[in-house]
């Protein structure tokens, strides 16, 4: 028995487990679900969680408009792994977002933000994976410990630089191209 060639964008004829899992997350699990180390994880953010993401988004918006960037919570694929993340906020070039129907890759972002009520997954798995896949900046808003940490300098092992943790209420500086000081007092 032979198999037909597989178009990487066509998930209807999936032959490998990674692609099958990613097809399931997009077409079966619903709009707000992730795959974290092979486990499908439905997302149901609370209002406090959504508020924290919105606090960050509103502070970034004037700078994003000036730079031709947009923010959203679109899908991020991590090819070669059993991971498919839906960040609380990702910043990407507007022209790239306008022409991309599917997922982007972490290295196509300029900033990824995760707001977490229980940050263990975000502190370990996502921190390592976003760094390995080249997301330049990763901001962890840890609602459990009421602190923010900015990770930068992605490497094949994760992130080489860490700024924080900073207690809520302490300003957090986002470097270029943002050059924004985030007020964390309302998180």
Please explain how this structure is put together.
- By secondary structure, this protein is α+β, with helices and mostly antiparallel strands.
- The chain has one domain (45-182): tt1808, chain A (Alpha-Beta Complex), CATH 3.90.1570.
- Helix content is 27%, strand content 32%.
- It is built from four helices and twelve strands; from the N terminus they run H-E-E-H-E-E-E-E-H-E-H-E-E-E-E-E.
- The chain has helices spanning 17-27, 47-67, 94-99, 120-132, and strands at 33-36, 39-42, 69-72, 76-78, 83-85, 89-93, 111-116, 137-142, 147-155, 158-167, 172-174, 180-182.
- The chain has a six-stranded mixed sheet.
- Strand 4 and strand 5 (83-85) form a beta hairpin.
- The radius of gyration is 17 Å and the shape is globular.
- The model is unreliable at 1-8 (pLDDT under 50).
